[in-house]
Structures are given as C-alpha cells and as structure tokens.
Amino acid sequence: MSIQDRIRGGAPLDMSRRGFLAIAGGAGVGLMVGLKPLPAEAEAAGGVVQFNPFVKVAPDGAITVVVKHLDMGQGPTTGLATLIAEEMDADWSQMRTEFAPADANLYANLVFKAQGTGGSTAMANSWEQYRTAGAAARAALVKAAADKWQVAQGEIVVDKGVLSHPSGKRGTYGEFAEAAAKLPAPIGAPQETPYKDAAKFKLIGKEGLHRIDNDPKTDGTAIYTQDVKLPGMLVAAVAHPPRFGGKVKSFDDSEARKVKGVEKVVQIPQGVAVLARNTWAAFKGRDALKVEWDDSGAEMRGSEQMLKEAREAVSKPGAAVATNKGAVAAGFEGAAKVVEAEYTFPYLAHAAMEPLNCVAQIKDGAVKLTFGSQFQSIDQPTAAAIAGVTPDKVTIETVWAGGSFGRRAVPTADYVAEAVAIAKASGGDAPVKLVWTRDDDTKGGYYRPFYAHRVRAAIGADGMPVAWEHRIAGQSIFAGTALEAMAVKDGVDETSVEGASNLAYAVPNLRVELTTLKAGVPVLWWRSVGHTHTAHVVETMIDELAHAAGKDPVEYRLALLKDKPRHLAALKLAAEKAGWAPGSKPEKGKGRGVAVHESFNTIVAEVVDVTITKDGGVKVDRVVAGVECGTVINPDVVRAQVEGGVGFGLGAALRNAITLEDGVVQQANFDTYEPLRMSDMPKVEVYTVPSDAKPTGIGEPGVPPLAPALANAIFSATGKRVRDLPLGDQKFTTA
Length: 735
What we know:
The chain is α+β, with helices and mostly antiparallel strands. 27% of the residues lie in helices and 23% in strands. The strands form eight sheets. The protein has a seven-stranded mixed β-sheet, with helices on both faces. Strands 13-23-20-19-14 form a five-stranded mixed β-sheet, sandwiched between helices. Strands 1-2-3-4 form a four-stranded mixed β-sheet, covered by helices on one side. A hairpin with a 5-residue loop joins strand 25 and strand 26. The longest helix is centred in the first third of the chain and has 23 residues, at 127-149. Mean pLDDT is 93; it is low at 1-43 and 188-193. GO terms for molecular function: isoquinoline 1-oxidoreductase activity. Keywords: Oxidoreductase.
C-alpha cells in the first residue's frame, strides 16, 4: 500500500494485472491501440476501476490520474490531470493523482524510450497518450450508460462527470465504472479522431484552473521522502571523501558509537555510514567519526587551473568538429569587420530546495525504494545490481520532490546506490532512510560543467554576418560514462555544443569546434543543459555584431531570423510587450537588453531592463518574455515555469559558482552558494504566442535567454561587455 493510500485510506492496484495502452511514437500518434479495461476481478478493493494504465474511476466519481512523471514543482500532476479531465469532460474538483510505479513497459517516456522525467518532455511526450487514455475511458463509460438506458451513444451528453440523456436519465461516472470495465476492447472511441477538437476545450489553455498540488502541499498531505516514517526505520548519514576520487583509508568509529541513538557504523564504497534511530543522532555520529582518506586517485586541481586549461584549448583549433557549413576561411577574407571574444563559465550546483534522500529496504529477497525517483529505468537496475537481485524484485514508490533541475536523474543513481549499499551493509532488513544535508549536496558533485568559448565572427559591408568560427572547450557530461556510445558521436557530446552547433541565425559560413577536457569532478545536466552557456555566447556575440553594424539589436535579429517564424513570433511578442523602440536609448544609469533562444523545441525571447546602482551594482528591474511553446495546456503553469527559469538563470548569472581549491569544493550551504534573494527578483511578465501546434517543453527554456539579455542590458547602460559569469562583485560605471 502506498504512503498516499495509507494517509488517505485508499487501496493500491495490482500493477502486474493491468491492461495497457500501446501508443507508438512519432508523427500521427494518438490512435487507440489495444486499449483494454481490466476485468472486474482485477480491480482493487473499494470498487475502484482502472480503465488503462493512466485512469481510475471510483464509485463516488473521483477520477485518479496515474502520473508517469516525477513532479518536482514543474506541474505535470496538474498538466496530465488536465488532459484526462478535458477528454473525459470530468469535474475538476473530483480529479486526483498518484505517481506511477516503476514499470517502463507501461510508463516509459516516449522520447527516452525509458521511464524517466527530464528534457522538458513531461507534457510534450504525454500530450496524445494521456488524451487518448481519457477519451477511451469516456467512451467506455458512455457505452455502459447507453447499454443500460437502451439509447444511442451519440445521444448522451457528458458534463463534469455526469452523463445525461434527453429522456431525463442521468448518472455519474462512478455509477457506470464497474459496468464499463467489463466491456470488450475496443470500446468505441472514434478511431480517426480519438479526442476533442481544440475549439471544444473547456480546461486546456484556460485560466483559473486550480493547481492539483496546491492543497496537499498546503495541508501537509503531500509526502516527500523526509516525511516517510516506517516501523524500525534507521536514518543514515554518510561521511564522504573531501575530494572527488578519494577513498577511505581507515576510520575510527569509537566516538561515533557512543552517541546516543547510533546503532551501527558501516563502510560502503562511497564512504562511511552512520545508522541511527533519528536524524540528529546520525549527523552527530558522523561528526564524531575519525576518517583518514586516500587521495592518491583524487582530483587535486583547482577550478582556476581547469578554466585556464579551457582557455588555452580554445586558443587553438578544436579536437572535434560539431558543425562545418560553407567556407568559413573565405568568409573572413572578404569581411568588412571582425569581432572576437572569449567567454568562461564555472561549475554550477543544482541547489534544489530539498537535498537528496532515499528510503531503502532489503527484505525477503526484494528491494523497496521510496523517494522522488526521476529516472526509474536507471534507479531500478542500479538498486538491483547492488542488492544482488533481479530488477523485477525492486519496487519504487515515487513521492513528491522539492526540485531537481537535473540532479535526481543522475545516470549513476549515486544517492540511490548509496542508500541500497547502506541497507545491504547493515546486515538487517530494517528500512534505511539516507539523508544528505545541503552541505553534502553542494559538495557532493554532479555539477554543470565548466566551459570556455572563443568566437570570431565577421560582418560584410551590409553589416550582416558572413562567417562565424566558434570554439568550445570543457568537460563532457557523457564522455567516460555508460552512455558515451549513445551520446558522443565523432568526439562530440551534443550537450556541449547544443544551441551553438545548430545556430538559428542565417550565417552562411559556420564552423563549431569542440575540445573535451577531462576532470575528476562528476558533472551532469543542469536546467537547460548546454544551452546555459551556448545561449549566452551566441546572444551576446549577435548583440556585438548588431552594434558593430550600427543596427538595432531587435531589428538585427529579426533580419537574421526571417526564415524562422516561431523565433520571429516570440521575439516580436517580447519586444512589443516590453515597449521596445528601435533606436531609442534608455536614460542614464538604465539599460535594456534582448536575447532569443530555442531549447527543447520551445523559443523564448526575453527583454531585460536594468539599473546601475550608485555603488556600481546591477539591479534587474523587469523581464518580459515572449514564449512560443505550441499549445498552452495550463497558462499558470507555463508562467510559473518561465518565471522560475528567469529566477534560476538570474541567480546563476549574478553570483553562483562552484570553485575548487586543491580539489576541494569551497561552497557548502546557501551562505556560500547563495540563491537568488526575493529582493533581487525582478518583475516578470510572460506572454505566449497563440498556437494550435503540439505542446513543446517549458520547464527549462526560460533559463538560457536570461543571462545574455542581462549582459546586453548591462552593455546598454555601461558600454562594457560581460563575457565571464557570474558577475560576482564586478562594479560598473554608466556610459
């Protein structure tokens, strides 16, 4: 029984007996294939009927949507419930959600072909799948009502979960659920158009829909890993090596064992774990450990040395070529003007509000995990390998997570592996809750990689770009991992060059080179991945070219994007709403900048207004975003994600950096890795381009344009270009 069920008194379903909805990937997806409701004897106690992997109906008419994506605050619970409710003509107040179990056969991400959440795909990959599931469930319920009333299905009207007929007959979904579940498949949803026409939408794209997670997060019934309390559970804290690649040489746990509440101390591959009856005792026990570390295989360099090596790498041709279009050398030969610039970017931590944690129990030859699993298809086999069982013996109960930004989807499943290793080493069958402090999280690795860029760009007599040479050097996310063969082609990790290798602007001669540098620091995707640095470089360089050509930055971009209608729409919308006036200059001490970038199939343009303060600091006053993300499912969720992306990107641009000295991370908590403060958050206005196209990603695309738009605004106010992030303690004087 799930934690949510124990709290709310519901009952779980036997997942092994579910029917499933087979939806193929690619264009034209959406037809119902092999959708078969479960037989009555397979249903859970209480009369809850499960029509397919995604929809359950209770006798009282409540509809539970099985959510295959982890909700870390980005809103897929509300989004997926909206799709089901729309197709079922359900009463929004009766919508419920629960997280799916680990079962990639039923709940795979249709983009990844594995069960996981990321890449801003939660809604985009579920758009047709969930709508089809909702339409099929509705069709079954209508058919059941038609059979009972002896009327034609087409004569039945459904509104807010109530079926009615002109004869006066009425009934709720709950009344017909059991009968509908006994119908043979297919059930009769239209095969050519299995779901609603957009003109009939009552929920999709509409304002004012109450987020489905608001109430449980407010009243405390939303369960996070830290809330989990099980009989006999032990809490574990781990002493990790201070340097990446370090190992335990020896340890003395005599003082740790004296701490009241400490039960066991065990060594695991990741360090030394203290198990205690409560969190405080586990932390105090860890503090009392005396560990001698072996740093013979550890990374000993500082981050400044790494960035120096990256700068040296971009001063010469790259080791691999990501893009080679036209004749770059010839383009430079006839150029009217050449602009060259170098940029650097530090390691960045994910710094989610909820640090990493996981509950693991090994009992009777099986493993039970309870935590905010972002990538079940990695977490499940990793746990199985450590516990010495087959993956089918590992169950994962996914609960809410307080942010991730990529950290919980690590390919090594590091903290999950740690929890299972501790449970195994403990020698018993008690559940173990691994708890990381924020210091553990900040110092524990898996950062956005460091990078250096060098761009040389040329413009012709008309001021338009004729050649662009772009060199990138930094650490690869995939090189040296189990995913290298899949993700690295001809020496190019696409996540290192995305946003630069596929330049949206009309530049006839383009060459992008990559040099991958090695470091012992573990790295990972970070909200918007490679776009976090490539967008900054591209958009600030385009701005430099516009000024070198004596052209307005927005007008210049529009001219270079004339064959990109979605980019044009987003940029024009942002400029219009911001009141951009070509050729105008802000008053002294003020600056205005713009950037537009595509990531995750979504285009976001942002206009940033800044004030240079009396002490030379930068105050961001306003950000206006124009967003082209296809059909907007939940307007409030879209706004929230773009607003959050602006704040996330702004914090990184202003002050965030992970630095190492002699291989040791210097940041620990929010005092040394400072998040954006409320006083720093500007007014953010988000506008979406009307569209009837399929939804595209929204969780990450608000991040990339922020830093370059900010940098361009600073230039507008001061005449100084920002090429190294973060701004840190830099002081500016107005132009």
